[in-house]
Structure formats: C-alpha cells, structure tokens
C-alpha cells in the first residue's frame, strides 16, 4: 500500500511475513475487549493499542518493510535529524497504516452470495 499521510509525507507499507502479522494480530486481540469494535482508523484506538509494549514491539516488527519519506520505518527513524520530528508527528498515522495492512487480510471473507444470475422460471404471474 502506498499512501500520502495527512502531513503530506509519503508512506509505503508492504505486508509483513505471516508469522509477524499473526503475532501482531494476537497481541492486538489481547488488548481489545471482545465486545469492542476494532477501528484502526481511529487515532484514539491506535494510541490505546500502541500504549501496550507487546503491540508496539509487534508493530515495529511488521514495519520492517515500510518506508516513510524514503527512510525505513524503525525506531531510528524517529531520531533521524532530517525526518525524526515530522515522523514523530505522523507516528500514530504511520502505525495505523501498518496495522491495517497487516491485520485486514485476516478478516477478509469471501462473499457467500452466488454471482450466477437466477434462472428464469417457466411460471408467469
């Protein structure tokens, strides 16, 4: 996924290996009440999830394939003299996109509806 963040900075996120994405999924679900809605587009939800050390660690692992403004996403990015300050301002949006890219595939389901057209009945009203 390639996107432009609200700040105007470019982020490219590639899916992490299954093992890393699955570990992230497990860590997130440990934090989320089963009755709650998981909305990774909500900055408040992302902030709450990233306050958990295990989730944050798993997100950084999944971030190994992400590129922010031409720089690999890792902890050093946020200390980078050129990009660190703007990366910190984009922190929650960066990690929201990384979580979306790696968690959403677990929840995509095939439609149960047939794409075939219904047959015409020989009965007329």
What is the terminal-to-terminal distance? 52 Å
Please describe the biggest sheet, giving its number of strands, its sense, and whether it closes into a barrel.
4 strands, antiparallel
| CA-atom Rg in angstroms | 19 Å
**Could you state the order of secondary-structure elements as H and E?**
EEHHHEEHH
Low-confidence stretches: 110-125
Number of strands: 4
Gross geometry: globular
**Which band does the percent of strand residues land in?**
5-15%
Structural class: alpha+beta
- Output the number of helix runs: 5
Query: Strand sequence of the main sheet, in spatial order?
Result: 1-2-3-4
Report mean pLDDT, rounded to a whole number.
83
Give the helix level as a range of percent. 40-55%
Structural key phrases:
125 residues, alpha+beta, 4-stranded antiparallel sheet, 5 helices, 4 strands, 8% strand, globular
Describe what this molecule looks like in 3D:
- The protein is α+β, with helices and mostly antiparallel strands and 125 residues long.
- The protein is 41% helix and 8% strand.
- The chain has five helices and four strands; from the N terminus they run E-E-H-H-H-E-E-H-H.
- It has helices at residues 18-31, 43-50, 53-62, 84-89, 91-103; strands at residues 2-4, 10-12, 67-68, 71-72.
- The protein has a four-stranded antiparallel beta sheet, with no helix packed on it.
- It is globular.
- The termini are far apart.
Offer a quick outline of the entry.
The chain is an alpha+beta fold and 125 residues long. The protein is built from 5 helices and 4 strands, in the order ββαααββαα.
